[in-house]
Amino acid sequence: MQSSGEMRRAVFGSLLLATLGLATACDTDDGGQDDEPQPVELSELEGVWRQRGYARVIEITEEAVRYYDVTEVSCVPSGEGSFEDVEGEFDRIVGDEDHFSWYETGGYTRYDFDRTDELPDGCGEPDTSAVAAFDSLWHAFDENYAYFSERGVDWDEVRSDFQSQVKDDTTSEELMGIFQEVLTPLNDGHVWVFDTSTGAGFLGGTLGLLWEDWAAQHSGDDVGENPADPRGAFTASMQEYVLDQVLEGKGKSGPHHLLHWGWLDDDVAYLDVHAMATSEAEFTIPEAIELTDETMEQVMDDLQGARAFIVDARFNEGGMDTMGYAIAGWFSDKSRTVSKKRAWLGDEWGPYQDITITARSGAFKGPVALLTSKNTVSAAETFTIAMNELSNVTSVGTSTYGSLSDTLVRLLPNGWLFSQSNEVYESPDGEQYEVVGVPPDVEVKVDDDLDYYENLDKTLEEAIDVLSD
């Protein structure tokens, strides 16, 4: 729930579009509990509980749930929710007096907890100094970040290089600069730090190779300078491209401009999956699925009779994975497992949780070309994995961005928000795509002799050729 700080979807614009726990599903592994854990009420679970992974401790009292973001050296109160709040977010709770799990309403994620004796030290009044903030950030990544090896970073060396630079009199501006030096080498699009009081912050990864090609067309303009929405101008520009050039002003748009659709010719339909979240509104998972299905029903009605579909995810910077899985269900002939994921627990990976899509009545079962790029990011990448599992789909373009993990968003003792990658998404047969991205079936390389928009059109033309074979 938002009061707990678990989602914080609207706090940091597009940097929070792929926030924690929006897309997973549960397998039969109960994480060490009985084979058939029994339903329990929150009122039966009074006490202190440590979440497995995810840097979180909760305290359940007689009438509320309190949340704390924790490391070995820090404990930061991050929110409180009533029983009603919790029961609205989770549709079932199972367990016993020592362990319990809760499951997201409308989603697939299961969170596991173990009883502990008491809250960690320092939960009442966190140390807000720069030194404490640095220690907390370093430990948070040391305990939860999953990709130091893959991204070529020696985290212990980072501590020895930077810890002495942080002192009690280090200013906020100086500390933000140090954090940027510390985290940027990870080159992870799901790593960021943000000061909600001043608006200062940074994204740890690049804005994407397609964005870089687009930005080169806008030399001198302030593109990518807003830390709360660095790709905002790009996605708006690409929306104009879709509506004005691809669909020639004859297309339609869904609520919040998440989807755009129309005809490319007499029998080839086009769907731009432009985003899976919006700064204009917040959705619960059930609300997001309902909105997606209502819009996709209209898409299929408007494009009835299509021989083939082009689904464009080249400009999608992510959001709610469940939106992508709902869309994939509109192109599937049957319900199926399309992915699996698990979380890093500090010294080992946790149990897998399977992700299953449900085929929709009225789904399009003909040939589909899925367009991807280096700016197909986050939830758009988990969508790509799901679509690739469908026998009627061929992906065309380039590999995706390579940041698939849900963002683990937590608070530092000084009140700053930060995010990191603590999960891995895999194909059903175990292929991993973090860092490297999801490769296409048909690669379309950038032609240096063509301009930016000609290269976009080249990918579209290749997809049309694929659908004609």
Describe this structure in words.
The chain has 469 residues and is α+β, with helices and mostly antiparallel strands. The protein folds into 3 domains: 2-116, no CATH class; 130-186, no CATH class; 209-468, Alpha-Beta Complex (2-enoyl-CoA Hydratase, Chain A, domain 1), CATH 3.90.226. The chain is 25% helix and 23% strand. The chain is built from 10 helices and 22 strands. The strands form 4 sheets. The chain has an 8-stranded antiparallel beta sheet, with helices on one face. A 7-stranded mixed beta sheet has the order 11-12-13-14-17-18-22, with helices on both faces. A 4-stranded antiparallel beta sheet has the order 10-9-20-19, covered by helices on one side. β19 and β20 form a beta hairpin. α7 (285-302) packs parallel to α8 (321-328). The longest helix has 18 residues, at 285-302. The radius of gyration is 22 Å and the shape is globular. The termini are far apart. Mean pLDDT is 90; it is low at 1-34.
